[in-house]
Amino acid sequence: MAHFDLPLDQLRAYRSSATAPADFDDFWARTLAESRAAGWEPRLERVDAGLELVDVHDVTFAGFGGDAIRAWWQAPADRAPKAVVVELVGYSGGRGFAHDTGPYPLAGYARLVVDTRGQGWSHGSAGGATADPHGTGSQAPGVMTRGIGSRETYYYRRAYTDSALAVDVARKLAPGVAVFVAGTSQGGGLAIAAAALADDVAGALPDVPFLCDFPRATTLVDTMPYGEIRMYLAAHRDEVESVYRTLSYFDGVGLAARATAPAVFSTALMDATCPPSTVFGAFNAWAGEDKSIEVYPFNGHEGGTGYQREAQLRWLRERVG
């Protein structure tokens, strides 16, 4: 796809029109307090993943409402980790295989890769191992409109809470060590939420993040997964106002405005899945002053791939030493 969004100079100045409701902070404070009250100690089981340089444990921890969430804990085998990276997963993906470590453990960091509840149906790996036990009314295929009739029942209330509580778990597994949050696409949106909602996150690495600037994203592109919302509203024509009211509690723009940790974003100017203006909407709203964004002018939703991994590892080294 050719460039279809705003020119780069306008993207750098772009400010989203998305606004957080007046009770946004109270809603999230209550949600997290209720889930922490329902929590329990994480359970770990060592796994033989066939690796010599990385130790792997199967982790089960308490997410939203005390629901069981699965994750892999992957840490350098011969040393204490320099930091922890909580990695959130892209849309439809799962935590994958125990031996799918990525570069972080090899660079000296522990990695907590978190299953996304109710997903894991693609990406060509082991898929997901975490159910979403909560029911819903009418929805389009996928999870974008699951429970969208109310902020209380919306799917991403649970997924964002799971992501924030994963930071708590990382601190228990590596006490006193800095915790970063990272992810690509949906994982990037979840990383923004975790950085905003969890306490004292050391940094965030949202890569071509999804779930940002819903009013613009859902009217600028009809690609999936944003297309699920369009599909739902095409059938539920009397729910437009209530749907956008629900989404306002989960917009990455509003969450970014509450995130103060250092951050490195990325965007691709031909990305028709997560349009660059929606990424810049969250980036420009980010409350922390220590922030940067990598721009890939001729890429789509794949973004920078290996180039971005290199930039992220360099960024982490600068902050961890």
TrEMBL record:
<dbReference type="InterPro" id="IPR008391">
    <property type="entry name" value="AXE1_dom"/>
</dbReference>
<feature type="active site" description="Charge relay system">
    <location>
        <position position="301"/>
    </location>
</feature>
<protein>
    <submittedName>
        <fullName>Acetylxylan esterase</fullName>
    </submittedName>
</protein>
<feature type="binding site">
    <location>
        <position position="91"/>
    </location>
    <ligand>
        <name>substrate</name>
    </ligand>
</feature>
<dbReference type="InterPro" id="IPR029058">
    <property type="entry name" value="AB_hydrolase_fold"/>
</dbReference>
<dbReference type="Pfam" id="PF05448">
    <property type="entry name" value="AXE1"/>
</dbReference>
<feature type="domain" description="Acetyl xylan esterase">
    <location>
        <begin position="1"/>
        <end position="317"/>
    </location>
</feature>
<dbReference type="GO" id="GO:0005976">
    <property type="term" value="P:polysaccharide metabolic process"/>
</dbReference>
<feature type="active site" description="Nucleophile">
    <location>
        <position position="185"/>
    </location>
</feature>
<feature type="active site" description="Charge relay system">
    <location>
        <position position="271"/>
    </location>
</feature>
<dbReference type="GO" id="GO:0052689">
    <property type="term" value="F:carboxylic ester hydrolase activity"/>
</dbReference>
<feature type="region of interest" description="Disordered">
    <location>
        <begin position="121"/>
        <end position="145"/>
    </location>
</feature>
<dbReference type="InterPro" id="IPR039069">
    <property type="entry name" value="CE7"/>
</dbReference>
